[in-house]
Inverse folding.
């Protein structure tokens, strides 16, 4: 069994007394050593989840362990990049890295941080306030990588970036994961940018877990089938079915043999995610259970 | 050194693309025994794909005996793929055949379809 | 061997100057630090000028008008340009010292805490190897140390000017010992209020989580606290009472005065002046005045300082509790 990066049980988070909970009874397990995508529409609770894992806020219900401990105990071992990439505008790039070194005594790696900045062709003496969105993201990432985290939490890291910057930064991120074995957990509402880089998926919808598990296993557990509209989909679990004229297209979780007349393919990540987002009542599928993983 | 090009829209699993491109390079003689494959870090930095995907592809190549991992040094090509090198008689024949097909008025898609159907007839059931 | 030497020099190099949270706090708030240094320089400069050339010129002017020769004229009561300059200088320095608590509150609310929460840089700091509590501790301790150091210098200089030029002050009729801002600037209160400003500002920043609302809240809250504590001020130490047939002379900080009846009861003065019938009608036999003499300066200062520091400590405690309740804490 692999080690666990983040584990949640009955996790709930409610802002204010009355409001709708941002997270509600979430249970999942993200293994260490991989790249996990936290996917969901805006308002699904992705940012809330990541900020809980970073020890920035406290859950109002349930428990969350990070690297086997409480989030506050592992502050030094976890990197976090917030969605809006906050940095001090009055500092230069070099001073920002010095700031990171001063606040991470004993962990900071100048080489990693400086290389991350250098790959973006940034002037170390340039003020943060003069940087573009992509350059800011790079500095924020350098700050997070410089502390040599065992777990890196990234909230919508690539939003507002042009395709080139997106590709370069994902490359930087994956290279760090390859070299140091860093576990990466990144949220996104753009599924396309995750395809290829992630090996684990956590799909959230309206504060609840919809899908959780290794990406390959989740994809393999589903089939995209097309057939005649009058065909019965029993006994399979139907995530979403749409009929157009005489035709039927459905995303199912096969339970046993299928009608050979159907055309079927394994869905792509995007097809899997979109079908689940369009069908909020589809049953939850978790393939990340400790018990199941051990089998 | 080989550079991988990942096509996310192809529908072919990413690790399979790496395996196929490595084999293609071995067939064309772009990679020879003793050559070093790029490290996982180098591959993912250039392609922005998951490091585990690269490792999975390399394990697959290792399993087929094409490459070997040497601890702390990297992954090296063990043997080439014994197919026709670029200047072999077989290639010359195919070359001549392509010229004739073009003269007969076939366009690229026609040739492609014809070629695929012949391959399907002769290599049915073989592992790719 | 060379490598070892190089490494140690590099390590020694890095150890020079402030480090860790101290460096981070000073660097992030560098412009505020410069502003504080500048303010101190202006305050100290003005006070030193008043102590030396300012006072000398005022005396010279007074002497040249013959006011010291026992031939007083109307001009001696007015004060010439040099005396006015001297007075403006001391008033400016006193005003500057009195302004510091409000500046501290506004800055702490807006820049020190409010803006960091608003822009998310506080969260950035908490995701380094620094807990929110340590972050807030540094945010409070570093400015507090600088405030105390600066205010100590200004207060001592203010006292220097005040004590050395007391005869000049009485001659040109400047403020009494118990009047603001000299009262605060001559003792520990100026520093205590500056610290209260810092604490109230930080708390306002944590509550408002945005720079501008925090600034407003902090300044208003500090002002309100100052008014409340200021109202208490005369009652912080037992008063001394003078009685007599006539109103006792004005002296020191007057707390209460009025008329006395034959039974010794205190009543408000019916303002009969010399009207005997009126006095008899109201049964007025004398007058009293409760006051603090100048010797009560330190007891009054210290009690009020204690109250102000207790309020500041309370604000700090609430700030930490608030922060701990919001963020994850190590068990």
């Amino acid at each position: 069994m692999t080690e666990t990066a983040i584990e949640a049980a009955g996790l709930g988070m409610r802002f204010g007394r009355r409001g709708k909970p941002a997270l509600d009874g979430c249970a999942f397990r993200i293994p260490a050593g991989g790249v996990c995508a936290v996917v969901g529409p805006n308002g699904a609770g992705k940012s809330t989840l990541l900020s809980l894992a970073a020890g920035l806020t406290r859950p109002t219900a349930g428990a969350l362990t990070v690297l086997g401990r409480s989030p506050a105990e592992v502050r030094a071992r976890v990197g976090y990049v917030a969605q809006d990439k906050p940095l001090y505008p009055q500092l230069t790039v070099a001073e920002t890295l010095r700031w990171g070194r001063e606040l991470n005594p004993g962990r900071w790696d100048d080489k990693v941080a400086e290389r991350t900045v250098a790959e973006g062709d940034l002037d170390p003496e340039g003020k943060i306030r003069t940087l573009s969105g992509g350059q800011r993201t790079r500095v924020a990432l350098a700050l997070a990588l410089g502390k040599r985290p065992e777990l890196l939490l990234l909230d919508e890291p690539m939003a507002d970036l042009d395709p080139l910057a997106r590709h370069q930064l994902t490359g930087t991120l994956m290279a760090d994961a390859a070299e140091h074995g860093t576990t990466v957990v990144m949220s996104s509402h753009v599924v396309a940018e995750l395809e290829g880089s992630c090996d684990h998926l956590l799909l959230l919808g309206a504060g609840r877990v919809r899908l959780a598990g290794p990406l390959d296993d989740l994809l393999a557990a589903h089939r995209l089938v097309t057939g005649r509209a009058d065909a019965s989909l029993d006994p399979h679990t139907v995530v979403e079915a749409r009929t157009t004229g005489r035709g039927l297209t459905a995303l199912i979780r096969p339970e046993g043999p299928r009608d050979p007349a159907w055309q079927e393919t394994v869905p792509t990540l995007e097809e899997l995610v979109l079908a689940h987002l369009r069908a909020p009542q589809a049953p939850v599928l978790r393939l990340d259970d400790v018990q199941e993983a051990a089998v | 050194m080989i550079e991988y090009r990942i096509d996310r829209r192809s529908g072919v699993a990413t690790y399979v693309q790496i395996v196929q491109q490595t084999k293609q390079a071995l067939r064309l003689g772009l990679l020879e025994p003793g050559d070093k494959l790029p490290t996982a870090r180098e591959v993912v930095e250039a392609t922005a794909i998951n490091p585990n995907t690269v490792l999975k592809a390399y394990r697959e190549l290792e399993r087929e005996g094409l490459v070997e991992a040497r601890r702390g040094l990297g992954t090296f090509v063990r043997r080439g793929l014994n197919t026709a090198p670029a200047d072999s008689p077989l290639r010359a024949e195919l070359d001549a055949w392509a010229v004739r097909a073009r003269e007969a008025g076939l366009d690229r898609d026609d040739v492609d379809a014809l070629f695929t159907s012949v391959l399907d007839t002769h290599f049915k059931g073989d592992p790719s | 061997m060379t490598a070892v030497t190089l490494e140690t020099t590099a390590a020694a190099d890095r150890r020079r100057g402030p480090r860790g949270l101290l460096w981070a706090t000073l660097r992030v708030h560098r412009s505020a630090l410069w502003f504080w240094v500048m303010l101190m320089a202006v305050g100290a400069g003005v006070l030193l000028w008043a102590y030396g050339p300012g006072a000398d010129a005022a005396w010279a002017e007074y002497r040249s008008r013959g006011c010291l020769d026992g031939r007083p004229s109307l001009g001696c009561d007015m004060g010439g340009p040099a005396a006015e300059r001297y007075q403006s200088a001391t008033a400016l320095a006193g005003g500057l010292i009195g302004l510091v608590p409000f500046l501290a509150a506004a800055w702490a609310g807006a820049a020190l805490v409010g803006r960091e929460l608003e822009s998310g840089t506080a969260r950035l700091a908490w995701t380094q190897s620094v807990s929110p509590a340590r972050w807030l501790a540094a945010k409070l301790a570093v400015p507090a140390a600088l405030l105390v150091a600066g205010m100590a210098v200004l207060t001592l200089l203010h006292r220097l000017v005040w004590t050395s030029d007391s005869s000049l002050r009485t001659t040109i009729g400047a403020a009494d010992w118990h009047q603001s801002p000299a009262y605060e600037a001559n003792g520990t209160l100026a520093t205590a209020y500056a610290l209260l400003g810092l604490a109230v500002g930080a708390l306002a920043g944590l509550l408002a989580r945005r720079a501008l609302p925090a600034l407003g809240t902090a300044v208003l809250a500090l002002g309100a606290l100052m008014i409340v504590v200021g109202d208490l001020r005369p009652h912080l130490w037992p008063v001394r009472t003078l009685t007599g047939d006539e109103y006792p002379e004005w002296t020191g900080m007057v707390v209460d005065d009025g008329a006395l009846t034959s039974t010794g009861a205190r009543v408000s003065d019916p303002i009969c002046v010399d009207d005997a019938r009126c006095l008899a009608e109201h049964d007025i036999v004398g007058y009293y005045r409760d006051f603090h003499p100048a010797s009560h300066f330190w007891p009054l200062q210290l009690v009020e300082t204690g109250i102000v520091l207790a309020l500041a400590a309370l604000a700090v405690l609430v700030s930490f509790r608030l922060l701990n309740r919001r963020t994850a804490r190590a068990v």
